[in-house]
Design goal:
Layout: H1 2-5, H2 9-12, H3 22-35, H4 42-51, H5 58-67, H6 73-79, E1 107-117, E2 120-129, E3 134-141, H7 146-154, E4 165-168, H8 177-185, E5 189-192, H9 202-206
Parallel strand pairs: 1-4, 4-5
Antiparallel strand pairs: 1-2, 2-3
Helix pairs in contact: 4-5
Length: 208
């Protein structure tokens, strides 16, 4: 029949595939990315999507990852300049897991998470006073960066100079010139968890 109609066999047997919904695909990619410790790139995400019956090109996955601000930690580790490595320098863990504080705003801790808002993923940052576990500052936005943390500080009621220490993990969003200037302006001390140790920031981690 193909010879008679003068068409290729591949055309005769072609079966149109249903297009994957963009919102559903974005949700699946973000979920796979975060469930795998933010280490997966387009190749591994493509494989995971295939396991779910979704056939998508790496180019399309890469575009969605870029739109959502998803960068594999493996990629960062390969190409991040040594000078801008995460907070590995002199800053120590001043808090030292002393989570029960008797003085308000002596130690404020922070962490970020992500939530879906209107079919898109956004990040949430909270500032927690260890004195009474109160969330004293918060912010949300599409980007996981220092500006998000700065906006959380802007929502704190009262004088920021009353905060004595600010403790977080070693995420890059907490290490930025803008953040350094803010902390220096209000004379807020800095405390960092040990690298790869979430227990050093357990109260903030458990908030979500």
């Amino acid at each position: 029949m193909c010879d008679v109609l003068q068409i290729a066999r591949s055309t005769f047997y072609y079966e149109a595939k249903e297009q994957v919904n963009e919102d559903e695909l974005t949700e699946a990619i973000v979920e796979i990315f975060h469930k795998n410790r933010k280490a997966y790139g387009t190749r591994k995400i493509k494989t995971k999507l295939q396991d779910q019956g979704l056939i998508v090109s790496r180019r399309r996955i890469g575009r969605i990852m870029q739109e959502q601000g998803l960068v594999s930690t493996y990629t960062i580790a390969q190409y991040k300049p040594h000078k801008t490595a995460c907070n590995e320098a002199a800053t120590t863990n001043v808090l030292d897991r002393e989570f029960d504080q008797a003085e308000a705003k002596r130690f404020v801790v922070s962490d970020l998470t992500y939530v879906k808002v209107g079919h898109r993923w956004h990040y949430v940052c909270v500032l927690i006073d260890l004195f009474n576990r109160e969330i004293i500052g918060h912010s949300a936005g599409p980007n996981k960066d220092a500006a998000l943390v700065s906006r959380a500080f802007a929502t704190v009621q009262g004088d920021l100079s009353h905060i004595q220490w600010f403790h977080t993990d070693r995420g890059s969003e907490f290490k930025n010139q803008k953040m350094d200037e803010l902390l220096e302006t209000f004379k807020i001390g800095r405390s960092l968890s040990k690298k790869g140790c979430p227990y050093d920031n357990a109260v903030a981690e458990a908030t979500y």
